[in-house]
Design a protein that fits this description.
This protein is an alpha+beta fold. About 30% of the residues lie in helices and about 20% in strands. The structure holds zinc ion. Homodimer.
């Protein structure tokens, strides 16, 4: 890559990663606290992506349910390329704990009977949701749970 970019993931060679995976993508230290940002990659870049309604519902559920398991979630937000999410935590660099947090959160998604806050009062595009789509994405990710810590292609 020619030039070092400001954004950590712009310096990541997306042709070399092996999705699904979860990796620490950034760390910002304040005066007292440190924010850890994780790249939760569901789909192989430039090979697959999540459809918007399922992705959007998954975002609502991960944002809501993850906080039932962790009290220091700063943010859960989808990538614009629709291949994954960023999860930011404050003062938590326990990688295995993050894997367990994502696992528990996705298990909640499979149990959900409705998408939280998918209405015009609480969401900016309430018509674009799919519970089934989100559950299909979550199921596929959970089936590959043992691959999450392998970030790069080995061969
Ligand atoms: Zn929404």
């Amino acid at each position: 890559m020619a030039e070092k970019m400001n954004v950590e993931s712009f310096n990541l060679d997306h042709t070399k990663v092996d999705a699904p995976y979860i990796r620490l993508a950034g760390k910002v230290e304040g005066t007292q606290d440190t924010i850890y940002k994780y790249d939760i990659r569901f789909c192989q870049p430039n090979k697959a992506h999540m459809d918007m309604p399922g992705l959007h519902s998954l975002e609502h559920m991960m944002a809501e349910f993850s906080r039932n398991h962790h009290d220091r979630v700063v943010d859960v937000s989808p990538m614009g390329c629709q291949t994954g999410f960023y999860l930011s935590l404050i003062n938590d660099d326990d990688y295995e704990g993050v894997l367990r947090l994502v696992e528990k959160t996705l298990e909640d998604v499979l149990q959900a009977e409705e998408v939280p806050a998918c209405n015009e009062l609480q969401c900016g595009w309430a018509a674009s949701h799919s519970l089934e789509g989100a559950q299909e994405i979550a199921r596929g990710m959970l089936e590959k749970r043992n691959e999450w810590s392998t970030i790069f292609q080995t061969a």
